[in-house]
Amino acid sequence: MDEEKEQEYREKAAARLFSGRVEFLLSAPELKFLPEPTVPEIAFCGRSNVGKSSLLNALTGRKAIARASVTPGRTQELNFFEVGEPTLFRLVDMPGYGFAKAPPKVVEKWKRLVRDYLRGRQVLHRNLVLVDSRHGLKDVDREMMKMLDEAAVGYRVVLTKADKIKKSELDKTVAAVAAEAKKHVAAYPEIHVTSAEKGMGIAALRAAVIEDALGAGWADA
Ligand SMILES: Nc1nc2c(ncn2[C@@H]2O[C@H](COP(=O)(O)OP(=O)(O)O)[C@@H](O)[C@H]2O)c(=O)[nH]1
Ligand SMILES: [Mg+2]
């Protein structure tokens, strides 16, 4: 098979897997509530309102597996979703950061929970850092990327809401974000461009997420 055919095959297999069982498992407000580390995990993080819930819904083809919220910064928990029957891996919806007016205590608690999870979680295979296409990287994103570098958790930078800006603007943002990602040891060089609204980049990201969780040969198994 040529490369394009192979990618098409992987994307189809990925869509099939995500169209099967995807189920909310639990919310962990503290580390002691984490589920047993029995399967690989892929975590998603980003600023509040970046489009994390929408992206999770688009990847899993669900309307509301992760609630798209109108009140940003409310959830301060790690939310676990299981994929596959039996469970093959988990998606982890991490609490949004960078929300305005959060009391220092809340920010401290967020940092501790996230840092401890990132550092101590053996089954955490990959992280996705979501960034709004219109805004590019903000200091809070850079801080998150630094945390991931330090925890030695590899991550993909995913631009969201790509439908909201012009192609020329989008190209500029992709180039700027890619240039910065290159300087981070744990970041993938390739930037994903997505729109949960229009479905752009979703099929490819599905395949990438499953490959991160299960390894390169997963579609042939
Ligand atoms: N146009 C557009 N809007 C989006 C997209 N993804 C999310 N949104 C909107 O952005 C807002 C925040 O989305 P949400 O998924 O709740 O963000 P979260 O706080 O990161 O979970 C909502 O009003 C969504 O409808 C997208 O791809 N395109
Ligand atoms: Mg959300």
Could you characterize the architecture of this molecule?
38% of the residues lie in helices and 21% in strands. With 221 residues, it is α/β, with parallel strands linked by helices. Strand 5, helix 4 (139-151) and strand 6 (155-160) form a beta-alpha-beta unit. Helix 1 (3-19) crosses helix 6 and helix 2 (52-60) crosses helix 6. The radius of gyration is 17 Å and the shape is globular. The two termini are 16 Å apart. Guanosine-5'-diphosphate is lined by residues 46, 48-54, 68-69, 72, 96, 160-161, 163-164, 195-197.
Which features would summarize this protein structure in a list?
221 residues, Rossmann fold, seven-stranded mixed beta sheet, 6 helices, globular, binds guanosine-5'-diphosphate, binds magnesium ion
- Kindly state the mean pLDDT as a whole number? 92
Number of domains: 1
- What ligands does this structure carry? guanosine-5'-diphosphate, magnesium ion
Please indicate the percent range of residues in DSSP E strands (runs of 2 or more): 15-25%
Largest sheet: 7 strands, mixed
Strand order in the sheet with the most strands? 1-3-4-2-5-6-7
Radius of gyration: 17 Å
Contiguous helical run count: 6
The secondary structure category is: alpha/beta
Q: List low-pLDDT spans.
A: 69-74
Q: Provide the CATH topology.
A: Rossmann fold
Straight-line N-to-C gap: 16 Å
Secondary-structure blueprint:
Elements: H1 3-19, E1 22-28, E2 41-46, H2 52-60, E3 78-83, E4 89-93, H3 104-120, E5 124-132, H4 139-151, E6 155-160, H5 167-181, E7 187-193, H6 202-214
Parallel strand pairs: 2-4, 2-5, 5-6, 6-7
Antiparallel strand pairs: 1-3, 3-4
Helix pairs in contact: 1-6, 2-6
Bound molecules: guanosine-5'-diphosphate (GDP) and magnesium ion.
